[in-house]
Structure formats: C-alpha cells, structure tokens
Design a protein that fits this description.
Helix content: 25-40%
Structural class: alpha/beta
Largest sheet: 8 strands, parallel, barrel
CATH superfamily: Glycosidases
Number of helices: 10
CATH topology: TIM Barrel
Oligomer: single chain
Distance between the termini: 13 Å
Radius of gyration: 19 Å
Shape: globular
Strand content: 15-25%
CATH architecture: Alpha-Beta Barrel
Number of domains: 1
Strand order of the largest sheet: 1-2-3-5-6-7-10-11
C-alpha cells in the first residue's frame, strides 16, 4: 500500500466562540503547493463541527461553512494529494476543551446520533470522489479508557455504527480510527472492520510538549534532554520509541494499515535537540513501514515559523522554513 506523507492544516481546526462566517476561513493553497513540491501526498484537515453548527442545533448545518470544507477537499485532491477529513471536535467530545460540549459522545444519544449523521452526510456529499482521493478519520484522539464515560465497548459500538452509515452512502470510502488515550492505545477489537488505524508521535511527552500551556502532565517539568529523558518508568531513546509502538506493530503485521496522523515537537526546546528526536522518530516510522503527517504545517509544531531557538531559517516560496527540518522530512519520505 502506498504510504502517505504530509501535514495537518488547521484552516477549520477551532471555531471562534463568537461564531464565524465563511469569509473568516482561509484555505491557503500556497501551503499545499509547497507540500506537493517537496513530494508530500497527504493532507489531513482537522475540523471543528462548530464552524457549521450553532448552539448545538446539530441538524441545522450552515451550508456556507460546509462549502469551505468542500474548498479544502477540492484544493487537496486537485493537486493529486490524498485528503483525510477528521472531526477534531465532534458533537460531544474534544480532547481540548471538552467541557464546552453540551452532550457526551459516549453517554448521550443526542451526540451519538449527531456524530453518525454528520459522517453520513459527508459520505453522501463526497460520494463521487474516489477512495484514493478522500478518507474519513472519524474522531480525533479519543480519551483514556474510563474518562468521560468512554470504555472500549461503547466506543466500539459507536465506531461500528458510524462506519456502517458511511458505507451505506459510500461503500468504498476509506475510514480511519484513532487510537484511544489520545491516539496512543491500539484498538485491535476493531481490526475486523476493514479500516486504517491512526496513532500518534508525541512520546516522550516531556520532550514533545515541554512548556505547552495546555498540557497538565508536563507543566513545571525541567528542560528535558534527548536521548535519555526519563518518563513513564522508561528512559527514552530510539529503542524505547520503537518499543512503544509494539501493539501497533502487531496490528500492522496482521494486515491493518497504520498511519501516524499527528506527530511533532513544541517550540520551547532548542532545535538541535528537536532534530535529534525527529531523526529517531522518523527512522522508527520508516522501519515500521508507516506514513505520517506532521502537526502542523505552519506554527509552533510546524516546519514553517515554528520559532524554536537555534533553527537554520531559509525563505522558500515565500515561507520561512526550518531548512534542516525540511531536509530531514524529505530524507525519510518513501521514494
């Protein structure tokens, strides 16, 4: 199977709490041109359903906003890149700011029905696009088991119901499921569903999320080193990273497609340390035979304007690019 390499694009990642109009959403096609020119073939678009749903009126979608989703999909596939649509914030759940939801995806029928209906509507909307052009990544980073009332059983039931609804409208549409626990915990109970599985590349968290204000588990920790960071009872290096993916490798070895839907490192560390980690994690992904998408293209985790100290910046096609990171990314992409 062809491996997918690319970036996450945050055009509709988080809706303004006061609402937004279609004119507020800018699909920057220059970013896609840049990625395509460097050899990328994959675009992941995390979506916040609140762009087209107001005040939890799930059945009243703003068609003007959905047209902006159409624009993003069209921009990606017109360049020959595979587009993955992802609900980063779904009715009843988001890994960031879940308290803003009125309903609970695992406990409330209202949220479950809205979740299924949203994906069915996307399946109908994009039925004419080929499986090679578009896939659906149903839910970004489900929580830890037991959190928000989510357990393997009720999560499995919702994902199976949603996949069935999608396939009624678009039988060949590829579907991706994120691992539990923020994408880290494999879900072999869904391996028979004929879907791809998406994991994450954010370990060890004291390195990737050092001084990230939203990350409670790394708050107040001293500046890490890499390799050699102690975390979660392990000392992290390339071998530790490889071992972390053991349950995912078992899925991959059994024939389940595995993709790293997000990975990256926040911008508070020296770039030299970040590049050491990037080389190890990318070599692990290559050894395992997996594609990946960096979080994100431009911004504090990105290849453009991340702001890490010590980076070697170069202007390329109008973007301020970390040249060493750019070269490393290209080195590990499958030819």
């Amino acid at each position: 199977m062809k491996r997918h390499y690319g970036f996450n694009y945050l055009w509709m990642f988080s809706a303004p709490q006061c609402g937004a109009s279609p004119s507020d959403v800018r699909i920057d096609e220059r970013e896609l041109d840049f990625a395509a020119a460097m050899g990328c073939n994959f675009v992941r678009i995390p979506l916040d359903y609140r762009f087209w749903v107001r005040e939890f009126r799930y059945g009243e979608a703003d068609e003007g906003m959905l047209a902006k989703v159409d624009e993003g999909v069209r921009a990606a596939v017109s360049r020959g890149m595979h587009c993955s649509l992802n609900l980063h914030r779904a009715p009843g759940y988001c890994i960031n700011g879940n308290e803003l939801e009125r309903h609970n995806l695992w406990l409330d029928r209202e949220a479950q029905d809205a979740f299924v209906a949203q994906w069915r509507s996307f399946a109908e909307r994009y039925a004419a696009l080929s499986p090679a052009a578009l896939s659906f990544d149903l839910l970004n980073e489900p929580p830890n088991i037991g959190q928000y009332g989510m357990f393997r059983g009720n999560h499995e039931a919702i994902m199976r119901r949603t996949a069935a609804a999608i396939r009624e409208a678009s039988p060949l549409r590829p579907i991706t499921l994120d691992g539990l626990g923020g994408g880290n915990i494999a879900i072999p109970e869904l391996a028979d569903l004929g879907v791809a599985m998406s994991t994450r590349g954010y370990q060890p968290m004291p390195v990737t999320h050092f001084e990230a204000s939203w990350c409670d588990e790394t708050r107040g920790l001293p500046a890490p080193r890499y390799p050699g960071t102690p975390y979660d009872g392990k000392t992290w290096n390339r071998e530790t990273l490889l071992g972390h993916y053991g349950p995912w490798k078992a899925l991959s070895d059994a024939g389940v497609p595995v993709h790293v839907g997000e990975f990256g490192i926040y911008n508070r560390l020296d770039n030299g340390l970040a590049l050491c980690w990037f080389r190890d994690i990318l070599s692990v992904f290559r050894e395992l035979g997996w594609g990946y998408a960096l979080w994100n293209f431009a911004g504090p985790f990105g290849i453009v304007d991340h702001g890490r100290p010590g980076a070697r910046w170069e202007t390329m096609d109008g973007f301020r690019v970390d040249r060493d990171m750019y070269e490393l990314f290209k080195e590990f992409m499958e030819e």
